[in-house]
Amino acid sequence: MQTARQWGLIPKGRLEPGAENAITDVPGVAVGHRSLRGEGVFTGVTAVVPHPGDLFRVKPRAAVEVINGFGKSAGLMQVAELGTIETPILLTNTFAVSACTEALIRRAIAANPAIGRKTSTVNPLVFECNDGAINDIQALAVTPADAGAALDAARTGPVEQGAVGAGSGMTAFGFKAGIGTASRTLRIARRDFTLGTLVLANFGAVGDLVLPDGRRPEPRAPASPERGSVIVVMATDLPLGDRQLQRVARRGGAGLARLGAFWGNGSGDVVLCFTTADPVEHAPSSPVTMQQRLSDDHIDLAFRAAAETTQEAVLNALCAAPATPGRNGRLYPALADWLKENSVP
């Protein structure tokens, strides 16, 4: 597997990637996959775990930006209202949202038996894209046990990309796509911070993809309307306020636009941005808590990182995914094969 950077697609920028060029470069963040393969089944679950502790008791602050809301994700409304997340984040196919929701609820209750009885209920956070072009989505193949397996597999360090986990059956711009990730380091006032992004790429019309060098790869495939989706999960250790988190999330749209996306009528394009800095206690010891906040004079670095990592993460998803046949006999080619055939001297 070669990444977009190894293919020479990512020009040297003002911000450098982290050690793994992945969302897991943010300290404490882990990613796990569960891939399902079978007769007509090509799907899975990907888990993003913001920190290794009890997320219900220590809630990372977060914001959601819905670029185009053609989607069936769970938990977004409460995140938008309260500005926190209290479970791991699961990515999967559209018809597997309920199975993943159940898994998150059961895990939260197991760790906190008071949930729903002596304290508040829990807000499971699940995102989805429709992988029905390759996977038989009506098979309802994903179970709560599969979601649990993705959570159990979550690790820090390198992240497997391409047609893996939730990305198994996803396509983008007529090519095979899936899971991709990237990161940037930010130096502010002699301190180093990180912003990392993971995407579930399943969007973009055939012929619309624009590479950073200006080339427009077009697979040998019939044109089709833009009816896909993309989920963008951003993590950072920057101390950002609620308003700032949403502003950073919004810049994920800039990264998608650089690729040629226009967020069609039938596209579900959602960004979640969370910070590991200054989490919110479920049972605070004081009625007043203090939180640090980055000065807006420095937030352009985070904006740039959000756009760059989103763009590169999608390209990594495309570069890592092999050619895969669809359910209707159509072949979704690999961008890597196109790059080999159209290499720049």
TrEMBL record:
UniProt-listed InterPro entries: ArgJ-like_dom_sf, Peptidase_S58_DmpA
Keyword vocabulary terms for this entry: Aminopeptidase, Hydrolase, Protease
Family annotation (Pfam families): Peptidase_S58
EC number: 3.4.11.19
One GO MF term: aminopeptidase activity
Recorded family membership: Belongs to the peptidase S58 family.
Protein name: D-aminopeptidase
